[in-house]
Amino acid sequence: MSVIYNLLLLFARAGYALAGRFNTKARAFNAGRRDIFKRLTNTLGSNTAPIIWVHCASLGEFEQGRPVIEKLKLEFPQYKVLLTFFSPSGFEVRKNYDQADYIFYLPWDTRRNAAHFIEITKPVLAIFIKYEFWYHYSTQLKKRNIPLLSVSSIFREDQLFFKSYGGFYRKILFNFSYFFLQNDESARLLKSLKIQNFVKAGDTRFDRVNELVKRSLELPLVAQFKSNEKIMVIGSCWPEDLEVLIPFINEHYHHIKFIVAPHEIDETFIGNLEQSLNAETIRYSAIDTAKVERAHVLIIDNVGMLGQLYKYGEFAYIGGAFGKGLHNILEAACYGIPIFFGNKNFEKFQEAVDLINRGGAFEVSDYLDFKNKYEMVTLPQTFLLACEVTRQYVEENLGATDKVMQYCRKLLTTNP
Fold first, then answer.
1. Which of 33, 221, 305, 399 has the most CB atoms within 10 Å of its CB?
2. CB 266 within 8 A of CB 242
3. Which residues touch 58 (CB under 8 Å, ≥6 apart)?
4. Which residues of the chain have pLDDT under 70?
5. 380 by DSSP, 3-state: which?
6. 213 inside domain
């Protein structure tokens, strides 16, 4: 089976090499791995401090790893943190993250690459976030008796680990020293494989977003736009979401204002959005304080503000679920407001499922369904219940980072 695994990786590498001719993300993916071992050697060659290696697939997983990294840096400043990414969407955004001492792309998971990477970096502890399960890297770490933790991991019955033909992939799980799981189902699945080295810790993102809420800044122009009106914050929306959102906004803008933060800050997307709306719109970059209060829709045409916008909302709609997958709903949940999202691709997100079951979030299939559920949620009793559910859900799930740190403290010494 390892032959098939290696062949699949070979085909994937060839695919990225070809895609790099036409796609900017694939080009960045390839460029980031060019001469990587030479750059690793040049950068880490003179390092004498022990290294903690944290690996994330992309930006979402980085947000789960971030609270652990920052706790480690605070409690163990004598250790260096090596942060790796698989995807350009993580690396390119966080390549200057100041809490990591070294930031690189992860070389492809071949036996030679894994061995060479670990020989150069010499980690004393490795932490892989959520779905990151690499055969050669995990095997080489275990071979060298280097502890490997899986943080905020979540398992589903349809994954290869739990199939009758998934023996090769199950081997990867036995290379891990400990799992910090998000839910009971993951614990049940690991138990079915006779794996006991885990704890249900929850998702470290709760700790991260809760810290962001505590530190969030006031946005005077947004407050002026809100005035005394109710607001729905629309976060990370895609073109697929607009099929539901545009008719909803056009029907409801006389009763509620909207803040729209697109997933991609693209002039074509924003221009089409403006033309599709009957409501008066204004872009954040062109706010005229004399006109901002009378606008009905505020379009956010920059990156980085979304997490601070939810505090001004009474409702939130989070994009992505009509396409590749639902975006982060926890930032909105931290502010204790009802949350809406598409009904096609949210099941893999534990928080979305939990909040639907509790009555704090609502999946919508189309415009009419969205309209009906929104009108239901505006009923005072339903609204107050949804607000309480989302707020309480976040409070119940805080503390995953501390559980990871309890284990790390046992592994790390203050005088390495």
1. 33
2. no
3. 85, 86, 87, 89, 90
4. 290, 414-416
5. helix
6. no
Task: Check which CATH number belongs to the domain holding 112 and give it.
Answer: 3.40.50.11720
Find the domain containing 103 and state its range. 2-202+399-411
In order of 32, 55, 102, 148, 324, the CA distances from 35 in angstroms are: 8, 19, 16, 26, 32
Tell me, what's the pLDDT at 305? 87
**pLDDT number for residue 30:** 87
Whether 174 and 243 map to the same domain: the answer is: no
Determine, yes or no, domain membership for 255. yes
Listed residue (412, 204, 177, 150) closest to 328, CA to CA: 204
- Looking at the structure, do residues 50 and 139 belong to the same domain, yes or no? yes
Count of domains forming the chain: 2
Please answer whether residues 377 and 355 qualify as being in contact, where contact means their C-beta atoms are separated by less than 8 angstroms.
no
- The answer for residues whose C-beta is within 8 angstroms of residue 316's C-beta and 6 or more apart is 232, 233, 234, 235, 310, 329, 332, 337, 338, 339, 340
Q: What is the DSSP string of 184-252?
A: HHHHHHHHHTT---EEE---THHHHHHHHHHHPPP-HHHHHHHTTS-EEEEEEE-HHHHHHHHHHHHHH
CB-based burial label for 5 (10 Å; 0-12, 13-18, 19+):
middle
Residue 208 lies inside a defined structural domain of this protein? no
Q: Which of 132, 134, 129 is nearest to 117 (CA)?
A: 134
- Alpha-carbon distance of 149 to 400, in angstroms, equals 14
Tell the burial category of 397 from Cβ atoms under 10 Å away from its Cβ (0-12, 13-18, 19+). buried
Q: Which candidate, 246, 242, 257, 247, places its Cα nearest to that of 295?
A: 257
**Other Cβ atoms closer than 10 A to 55:** 22
The tokens for 288 are 């005229």
Please tell me whether the overall predicted TM-score, pTM, comes out greater than 0.70 for this model: yes
Q: Which of 101, 373, 68, 12 is nearest to 202 (CA)?
A: 68
Cα 405 to Cα 95, 174, 239, 386: the distances in Å are 24, 22, 40, 32
> In this structure, are 166 and 122 located in the same domain?
yes
Instruction: Please indicate, yes or no, if residue 416 is contained in any of the structural domains.
Output: no
Nearest alpha-carbon partner for 151 in 187, 203, 109: 203
Residues 215-245 have pLDDT tens digits of: 888 899 999 999 999 999 999 999 999 999 9
Give me the helices (H) in 77-159, please. Answer: 88-94, 111-121, 135-143
Query: Between vectors from CA 358 to CA 182 and to CA 337, what angle results, nearest 5°?
Result: 95
Q: Kindly state the greatest CA–CA separation across the chain.
A: 67
Q: Which residues of 219-246 are buried (b: 16+ CB within 10 A; e: fewer)?
A: beebeebbeeeebbbbbbbbbbbbebbb
